[in-house]
Amino acid sequence: MDTAQLPTTDEAREQLLDALEHPDTGQLPALIARWHPALIADAVEALPRDMRHTLWDRLDAIDRGQVLIEVGRGVRQQLIDEAAQDELLAALATLEMDELADLDADLPVSVLDAMVRAMDVQRRERYERVKRYPDDTAGGLMDVDAAAVRGDVSLKAVLRYLRQVRKRDGKLPEHMDSLVVVDRQNRYLGMLRLSDLVSHKSTAIVSHLMDAEAPAIQVGTPDTRVARLFEDRDLMSAAVVDDDGHLLGRITIDDVVDVMRAEADGEVMRRAGLGEDTDMFAPVLSNAARRAVWLGVNLINAFVAAWVIGLFEASIDQVVALAVLMPVVASMGGVAGNQTLTLVTRAIALDQIGRGNAMALLFREVASGLLNGAFWAIVVAVVATAWFGNTQLGIVFGCALLINLITGATAGTLVPLLLERLGIDPALAGGVLLTAATDVVGFFSFLGLATLFLL
User: Fold this and answer.
1) Where are the transmembrane segments (predicted)?
2) Cα–Cα distances in angstroms (integers) from residue 68 to residues 56, 106, 126, 181, in the given order
3) How far apart are CA 115 and CA 95, in angstroms?
4) What is the pLDDT of residues 402-444, one digit of tens each?
5) Which one of 40, 55, 243, 447 has the minimum C-beta count within 10 Å?
6) DSSP string covering 171-191, please?
7) How far apart are CA 106 and CA 82, in angstroms?
8) pLDDT tens, 289-325?
9) ∠ CA(350), CA(38), CA(7), 5° rounding?
10) How do beta strands 216-218 and 188-193 pair?
11) Where are the alpha helices (DSSP H) in 154-252?
12) What is the distance between the alpha carbons of residues 279 and 287, in angstroms, rounded to a whole number?
């Protein structure tokens, strides 16, 4: 299908809905045949729950396997729960080992056992090798079918080996831009690019052409670190090795793109207090229960801020302008804090912060908060004085704003660092704690200073 004619997810969903509601038109088989499974998966996620399995029933085994890989975990769990065991087994049989390793945690035990029993000896051995490692590590991402050649052979021998692989398996490994070079003990030596393989004399020796500087990835490396390495080095593939340098497998760019997308999606969802596997058409009861926790945390924050305001009820009654201005103080502190929080959370994710630079970053952010606070304190003091005709009120307003901007910068730096030290995701809880700090300090500083100097 011409890429210019590819529909958007919304257009695909509408076309699928129309085809599912009018099965006599014969549109559905034509759409499924033309579309890539990834587009079908996107449309499946956007379909109401009762329509998803109807579409699943019309897919073949290959498309079902790819749809399970592409959809979010919440939708995947629904499809697995509602599918017949023989349908699942047929779909799973079409997947690569690293893809199976990504799915097996969501599979019923009976399906998992039947899947392993149905494997031939070689496939079962490869599956067990991948399952030794957690899903969020290089070992969990890797494909064990790494095409490896020795460094002491000629390019002619390498080409003969690749022809044998194609004859044996019917295809070469996916996304193969280079071959892994190893010694006789299967220890990693470097990478041989396919461009070098096909452009040099067939008598050339592999070790003379290989890239010995190409990085190999330790099997226990977190998947986010793997993604960063691919981004920094512009890699298409990389070898995975154990602690002794022995070749275990290969990671390709398609696996890394999935990691990047999952990390980005998870970041957005965690900032809203939602799980990464949230299904937008999940049952209302479970959906409400999932959101209730963070709504409760925010409610506690709101009550704490309201309690602080209540401490100064008499002051607010005497100077009505305080009620008008105090939300501005809290809001400005929250904005300043969120700017710092975003910066620090990103730096933590990229491993850019450690003991050696944490204090320097704190001082820098506090200094920025102080400069911004001083500038905007003068601005709001002038505005408040002109608005309410009260110079003392303007000065109090400006001082409170200065205090809260410094508080926002300080909390925005310290909160994510503390959460990361405690093993809590800063993207999940950082915003809630920051809001609590800037609201409480903002209200307390403004109303407290007003009580001391205006009343």
Assistant:
1) 292-312, 319-337, 370-389, 395-419, 431-454
2) 10, 10, 21, 34
3) 12
4) 999 999 999 999 999 998 888 877 877 788 889 889 999 999 9
5) 243
6) SPPTT-SEEEEE-TT-BEEEE
7) 13
8) 666 666 677 778 778 878 888 888 778 777 778 888 8
9) 110
10) unpaired
11) 155-169, 194-199, 206-209, 223-233
12) 8
Closest CA to 80 of 102, 107, 56, 55: 107
Architecture of domain 148-254 in CATH?
Roll (3.10)
Token pair belonging to 366: 């506090």
Give the DSSP letter string of 71-93. Answer: S-HHHHHHHHHHS-HHHHHHHHT
CA distance 103 to 127: 12
Residue 22 gets the label, from left (phi > 0), alpha (psi -120 to 50) or beta, of: beta
Q: What is the DSSP letter of 6?
A: P
Q: DSSP characters for 403-414? A: HHHHHHHHHHHH
Please, which residues have CB within 8 angstroms of residue 44's CB and are 6 or more apart in sequence?
52, 55, 56, 67, 71, 75, 79
180: its two tokens: 């892994």
| CATH for the stretch 284-454 | 1.10.357.20
pTM of the shown model? 0.62
Rounded distance between C-alpha atoms, residue 118 and residue 121, angstroms? 9
